[in-house]
Amino acid sequence: MAREHIRAFQDIPGVEITGICSRTRSRAAALASEFNLPNICDSIPKLFEKAAADLVVISVPELSANPVCRACFEFPWVTLIEKPAGYNVADAIEIESAARAKNRRAYVALNRRHYGSTRALVGDLSSLSGPRLIKIQDQESPSAALLAGQPKLVVENWMHSNSIHIIDYFTLLGRGPIVSVTPVIRWDPQHPSYVASRINFESGDIGLYEAIWDGPGPWAVSVNTFEKRWELRPLEKAAFQLTGKRVLEPVKDDPWDSKFKPGLRRQAELAVLAANGVETELPTLSDALATMRLTQEIYS
Fold this sequence. Notes:
Elements: H1 2-10, E1 20-21, H2 25-35, E2 40-41, H3 44-51, E3 55-58, H4 65-72, E4 78-82, H5 89-101, E5 106-109, H6 116-125, E6 133-140, H7 142-147, H8 152-156, H9 158-173, E7 178-185, E8 194-201, E9 206-213, E10 220-224, E11 228-232, E12 238-242, E13 249-250, H10 256-259, H11 264-275, H12 285-298
Parallel strand pairs: 1-2, 3-4, 4-5, 6-9
Antiparallel strand pairs: 6-10, 7-8, 8-9, 10-11, 11-12, 12-13
Helix pairs in contact: 1-11, 4-5, 5-12, 9-12
């Protein structure tokens, strides 16, 4: 992910990446050589001192996020934190509290919000009236994550490490506060299989979440209104269906999502604007924590 962030930021005119730090110096040196980056640093204080940066991007494993974020919050740069910002809700609360204690501006890299497909969906929904029926399909493979070397503690909280990518669409698309989360198929951590919940929003919007663990299934989002139905499947592809029609009309892809890891180029642009004091739709630590709290309710 660090490599993909570097590619995105280096594409923005006027942006210079002035330093890099990693607990494994050889990996930092390899990236520095590949992208011609100055200042390979062995600590975050040294990175701040030598890079003199306005923005720092944190891209570390889940169990390292808390101490690394805290170390970065000691300095007055704007922070973009790769998701999840905490391996569970308690960890995320500690990170958000640490940012508030230092009065730091911190954002979370929920890059699916910045897909061209997502932006087309959000833009069109703003012109459609009436309640929305938001359905999200999730699929998770914790056994594969363990085999890939993920720590047991991370896999035990896999809904926060991985499902956050797609549950965040409820936070983005549902209007108003969430008033209730009702289990349809309860989560059983001892025997992970199916999970389903209904989410009611104060606006009248309704969310339906379904997931299968260690079984086949897509990641997909659909939004129904009485005028138009939208579908993201895969999430990078958007299509809509008009009332009275039987076909899905595809939406043209964003070229940035082909050239870069989807969502990262626009996300980088928003992060640069934020570092320059401009208000943007870049999700904050509080926004990410709201999604993690919803995830906790679904999986309680």
